[in-house]
Design brief:
The chain is an all-alpha fold. The protein has a domain at about 105-310: MetI-like (MetI-like fold). It is about 65% helix and about 5% strand. Helix 2 crosses helix 14 (about 280-300), helix 5 (about 105-135) crosses helix 13 (about 260-270) and helix 13 runs antiparallel to helix 14 (about 280-300). The longest helix has about 30 residues, at about 105-135. The model is unreliable at about 1-5 and about 10-15 (pLDDT under 50).
Length: about 325
C-alpha cells in the first residue's frame, strides 16, 4: 500500500513504518502449465482419447460416403460428398434375413424389451436393497449371499435350464420370456448397488421415521426415494446398456420376428450376399449404439456420483 509523507513524497507503507522488514511475494508458488507432471498426465489422456475416438471417427466418416469413394481406400479422409443414403438404407431397406425392412423393426422390438425390463428390475431391486439395508429380517444375510453368488454366475451356464423353464411356461420365443430373463439376470447386481447406497444414507432419518410411526412403504416412498436419484440413474444406465446391447439372449430366447436390434445388426454385417456395403454397416452400427450413448451423455454426471456412492459404501 502506498502512503503520502512529507515533501509530497509517495512511499510504500512498509518503508514509511520504521523497523518493519519488507518481504517478498506472498501466497502459493504459481504452477507451471508445461510442467513434467502435466505433460505426462495430459499426454496420456490425449493418447487414450484418440485410441477410443479414432474408430468412432472412421465409422462416422465411412457412413457418410458413397461406395465409389470408399473403394479409393483412404478411410481417414472426410467425405468429399456427404450422403445420408447409407443411414436411410440401414434404417429402412437393409436385409436382416428374410425381411428387408432395415433396423426399424428391431429398434421397436428393443424398445419393447428394454423399457419393461428396466422398470421391473429397478423397482424390485430397489425394494430388495432397501429391505436388506434397513430392515434386518430373518435370513437376510443368506438371501444377500445368494444374490451375490447369482451376480457372478456365467450366463452361458443358465441358458439351457432357462430354455426348459420358459418352454414349460409357454413363453419361450416371446418378448415376455425375454423380458423375464433380463429382469432376473439384472436383479443381483442392482440389489447390491441399492443395498450399499441405502446403507450409506444417514441412519438417523430411518430411526426418526420409525419413531414417528412410519411403516415400510411410507419410509421407502417419502424418505428413501427422494434421496436416491443418483443410484437410480446408475441402475437405469447399467440396465439400458446391458439389455440394449445384448445379443446372446436375444438370439436364443426369441424368434426372428422378435429379434432385437443387435441381432438384426449382426445379420446385416455378416451377410454374404451381394456387395459388401461398408457404409451401410457403419451406419447400422451407429444407429444401434445411439440409444445407450444418448442416455449416458445426458445423465453422465449423476452416473459418476451414484456409482461412487453405491459401490464403496455399506
Amino acid at each position: 500500500m502506498l502512503k503520502l509523507v512529507a515533501n509530497n513524497t509517495i512511499v510504500s507503507e512498509y518503508e514509511a513504518v520504521p523497523g518493519r522488514v519488507t518481504s517478498g511475494p506472498h501466497g502459493p508458488k504459481p504452477r507451471r502449465i508445461l510442467s513434467r507432471r502435466n505433460i505426462v498426465v495430459y499426454g496420456t489422456l490425449i493418447v487414450v482419447a484418440l485410441y477410443y475416438l479414432l474408430p468412432l471417427y472412421v465409422m462416422i466418416m465411412t457412413s457418410l460416403k458413397g461406395m465409389p469413394e470408399i473403394r479409393i481406400g483412404n478411410i481417414f479422409a472426410p467425405p468429399v460428398e456427404i450422403t445420408f443414403e447409407p443411414w436411410i438404407k440401414a434404417w429402412a431397406q437393409a436385409c436382416t434375413g428374410l425381411n428387408c425392412d432395415g433396423l426399424s423393426r428391431g429398434f421397436w422390438n428393443s424398445v419393447r424389451i428394454t423399457v419393461p425390463s428396466v422398470i421391473i428390475s429397478i423397482a424390485v431391486a430397489s425394494v430388495n436393497g432397501y429391505a436388506l439395508a434397513n430392515w434386518r429380517f430373518k435370513g437376510a444375510d443368506l438371501f444377500f449371499a445368494i444374490l451375490i453368488i447369482g451376480a457372478f454366475i456365467p450366463y452361458q451356464v443358465m441358458i439351457y435350464p432357462i430354455v426348459i423353464v420358459l418352454r414349460e411356461m409357454g413363453i419361450y420365443g416371446t418378448l415376455t420370456g425375454l423380458i423375464m430373463v433380463h429382469t432376473i439376470f439384472g436383479m443381483p447386481i442392482l440389489t447390491l448397488l441399492f443395498r450399499n447406497y441405502f446403507a450409506g444414507l444417514p441412519e438417523e432419518l430411518f430411526k426418526a421415521a420409525r419413531v414417528d410411526g412410519a411403516g415400510f412403504w411410507t419410509i421407502y416412498f417419502k424418505i428413501m426415494l427422494p434421496m436416491s436419484l443418483p443410484i437410480f440413474v446408475v441402475a437405469m444406465i447399467l440396465q439400458v446398456t446391458g439389455i440394449w446391447n445384448d445379443f446372446l439372449f436375444g438370439v436364443v430366447f426369441t424368434r426372428p420376428e422378435y429379434y432385437p436390434m443387435t441381432v438384426q445388426l449382426n445379420n446385416i454385417v455378416n451377410s454374404v450376399q451381394g456387395v459388401k456395403e461398408y457404409n451401410v454397416n457403419m451406419a447400422a452400427t451407429l444407429l444401434t449404439g445411439l440409444v445407450p450413448l444418448t442416455i449416458y451423455f445426458i445423465s453422465g454426471r449423476l452416473f459418476v456420483r451414484g456409482i461412487a456412492a453405491g459401490a464403496v459404501k455399506g
